[in-house]
Each structure stands twice: as C-alpha cells, then as structure tokens.
Amino acid sequence: MSNAPVDNGRRRFLTVATSVVGGAGVVGAAVPFIASWNPSEKAKAAGAPVEVNISKIATGQLVRTNYRGKPIYIVRRGQDVIDALGGHEDQLSDPQSNEAQQPEYAQNQYRSINPEYLVAEGVCTHLGCAPSYQKGDFAEQVEGVDYGFFCPCHGSKFDMAGRVFSGVPAPLNLVVPEHSFLDDNTLIIGVGKGDA
Ligand code: FES
Predict the structure, then answer these.
(1) What percentage of the chain carries pLDDT values higher than 70?
(2) How far is the CA of 127 from the centre of ligand 1 (A)?
C-alpha cells in the first residue's frame, strides 16, 4: 500500500471528466432512441385518412378497403335492407348500440351517417376473424333475415348495421370507424363528421 499523499486536485479532475464522458454516452445512446419515436413515412401513410369513391358502388354491393391495418367493409344498403333493420331488434345483443363501438354520430339504428352506407371494420368482435357478407342467403343463419354477416370461425352473426345477434360468441357489435362524406361521391374514413 502506498503512503504517497492523495492528490485531491487530480482526483477531482478525474471524477469530473468521468461524469462528462458518462453524460456524453447517455446523450449518444439517447439520440437514435428518440429518432425512433418519429413515425416513418410509411407509418404516417398507414394512419392517414382514406378516401373512397362511392359513386360506382351498386346497391347491395360490398367493397373493401383498409384503414390503420384493419379491413373496412363499405356496403351500399338498398331501401329493403334499411327497412328490415327494425324487424329483428329483439334478437340482437345491443340493438341501440349502447356500447361504444361507434362514434356518437353513428349511434343510431343504421349505425351510420347516411343510412344508405354501412361503414364497419370487417373484424369479428370475438377473436378477429373476417365475417362474410351473406346477401340474400343469410336466412340460413337467422330465419327471416335475408342479409347479414356470418363469421365462419365460431358462428357469430351480425345484421346489416353490424349489430351482433344474441347467443353467439361475439360480445359486441362491429366497430364503426370515424367517417364522413366529403361530397355525394366521396367517403372519407378516419375523419369524423364535423371534423373535416
Ligand atoms: S372470431 Fe368470429 S365467431 Fe369467433
């Protein structure tokens, strides 16, 4: 063991120098981490609103698009389908859409802004399978109801407003995303009514 006097001035310098290097190291490591918080152009595009030209959708037709990585179904409902929505409400789990599965402006019997268009995520609220659109042959699933969505995975059933029938595995109505109409021919998904 050395009996040499301790050089306090040198020790202090070493302590300060070490702290500075340590600090620089932290900053150096933090920069790439912070940079990763900025979403990429691709990520930004994936979250951007989606415009859909609805002028060519025939009555009864379903078209699909994607928004934020989820499939979106857009169906143009005929007047017969719209009128039939009131006829089976006693068989639905949440006919008044009391659960927050849609924006406030779509909390109505049609679950939409314009009764002619259903806009809903094509994702079953049980375990996420894609329900199939049954046009005219849905009565095989629910007697007396001609149109609806049937989930092939475990048999959940939804009506033409995306409302779930009782007694199936899915607990909730299909999710209606924020949407609005720019004009008669343009639907925009991701921008709510009054937010444009
Ligand atoms: S995922 Fe649709 S019924 Fe199970």
Answers:
(1) 76
(2) 5
Residue labelled with tokens 């094509």: 122
Q: Which residue ranges have their beta carbon within 6 Å of ligand 1?
A: 124, 126-129, 151, 153-156, 169-170
Buried b (16+ CB within 10 A) or exposed e, 46-82: eeebbebebeebeeeeebebebeeeebbbbbbeeebb
pLDDT for the residue 5: 52
Q: Which of 124, 149, 168 to mutate to test the pocket of ligand 1 (most atoms within 8 A of CB)?
A: 124
pLDDT digits (tens, 9 = 90+) for 92-139: 999 999 999 999 999 998 999 999 999 999 999 999 999 999 998 999
